[in-house]
Amino acid sequence: MSTASPLEPLVRPGHGRGLADVPRHRYLLRLLVNKEIQVRYRGSILGLVWSYIKPGVQFLVFYLALGLFLGLNKNMENYPVYLFSGIVLINFFGEAFGNGARAMVANGALIKKIYLPRELFSVSTVWVALIHFLPQLLVLLLACLLVGWHPSLLQLAVIVVAMLIMVLLSAGLGLVFGVANVFFRDSENIVDLLTMVATWLSPVLYVWTMVAQELPGWAFPLYMANPITVAVELFHYGFWQPTTSGTAPIPPHLLSLWTPVALGISLVVLVLGDLMFRRLEGRFAQEL
């Protein structure tokens, strides 16, 4: 006499467990990442080489405008390393956040045909952004080594923490605006504006001391509460400062206060994005 197997709990169609479903569907995630790479470079001659060209052109333009014409290169030691370390990080955020916000609409035809954990679309854009980030990171490492990079273990650790902040933040914002874009297509324009503003509201092109001198005392903590600002400064601390004489100042309480604050804010954004996604994903097929 055979015993009946326990029944699986019923699951409401079209709903999943949010980001908790992602590790269980690693194979699907890999397929989506491969699809994104193939679609993006279909018919392209240079392919992944564009990962070098875009930041290279950005660096050249900003270096000429700010480094040479405005004189930042004269007042800062190894300003090219400072500039490029900020550019590669903000480029990762812009790509991961922007493509994550468009992921649901871009994959609308697939969402309407079959069910699979929809968070995979957003998570795959972060992985694609990481793939494009790696060539830029290699160029940055080479440049740092050429000018005498000598990081401590702490500085190597903060580089990893900076990337963790940006991954959590870009994934969380990608989920939030990915949901918003399903219902309000104007969200794409807001994402473009936020990505542009993020470059100038964080010390990618200029030094944080300029901000501290101009802002009133109560406003500077608000500036430092921006997780992107903290991540960029951590990258500067890990890559740029070891190439200088060691006298370059870092923002007050960067490691002891602002880094935990940035990690906390990024994690909260990710959790809120996941909750928002799980609440509304059942309406995606209808809206798309």
TrEMBL record:
List each copy of the ABC transmembrane type-2 domain by range.
46-280
Ordered alphabetically, the record's keywords are: Cell inner membrane, Cell membrane, Membrane, Transmembrane, Transmembrane helix, Transport
Query: Which InterPro entries would you find in this protein's record?
Result: ABC2_TM, ABC2_TM_bact-type
Q: Supply the name of the protein.
A: Transport permease protein
Identify the main location: membrane
Q: Which domain of life is it from?
A: Bacteria
Membrane spanning residue stretches: 52-72, 79-97, 126-149, 156-184, 190-208, 220-237, 257-277
Family per record? Belongs to the ABC-2 integral membrane protein family.
Matching Pfam families: ABC2_membrane
Q: How does it sit in the membrane?
A: Multi-pass membrane protein
Intracellular or extracellular location(s): Cell inner membrane; Cell membrane
Task: Please give the organism.
Answer: Tersicoccus solisilvae
Matches recorded under PANTHER family: INNER MEMBRANE TRANSPORT PERMEASE (PTHR30413), TRANSPORT PERMEASE PROTEIN (PTHR30413:SF8)
